[in-house]
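Contributing new records

If you add data, match the layout below exactly. Sequence lines come first and carry their own label; structure lines follow with theirs. Keep one chain per record. Anything else will be rejected by the validation script.
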Amino acid sequence: MRPSLKVPFVKRAFDITVTSILILCLAPLFLLVMILIRLESKGPIFYYSYRVGMGYKIFKFYKFRSMRTDADQMVEQLKHLNQYANNEEQTIKAKPLTRSIIAYANHNHILVKDDELFEESEYEQFKALEDKKAFVKINNDPRITRVGKFIRNTSIDELPQLFNILIGDMSLVGNRPLPLYEAEKLTTDKTVGRFLAPAGLTGLWQVTERGKSGMSTESRCNLDIEYALKHNFWMDMKILFKTPLAALQHENV
């Protein structure tokens, strides 16, 4: 049964108010970015993937497209560049939660990839291929377009998530929502606590570790758990205050 978790009323009211104002003010920027993406490459302007948020809630997570349209097909070719590939934390064994995740999806489908639905009978085959993955972050990722590099380094690619916040999938501040194959690997007693916090556009990890090389799954989870256990309105304000500087990351990751 899905955990019953709710965003505090003050936090939700703040999210709706601020997000509504930001969407109105940033509308011209949205339009400009949409035009630039379309001029550089054919394909969709927006990219979405299924993510796991607070209480293992599954939702569609939106971004401006910053990669080539064949980016997913290139992952296997570039796996040797994954920052996390050689970390010992990658070997953490998670408890199998196949049935739990099925319960959260409709019609006994498991949403495990950006735009695909897998039946239960197909899941074990997919899981075997993904078994050694957790976080994926590639240095100097060749899949990123020129416009994509700019909107990533300035975090403009994240702006469509304001609509996720407005409808209640996310909060302005929280823990980063994860793809299902990553979330399933973070279900041990030491890591599950990160899902007690709302999914966020920015968070404690983003303002302290984002853009740094050599980051580990363990350190990222520890920061997420710290936020889940200690977050309050004033902590959120401090994180929001630090976010603009953290957003202007300099590493191409």
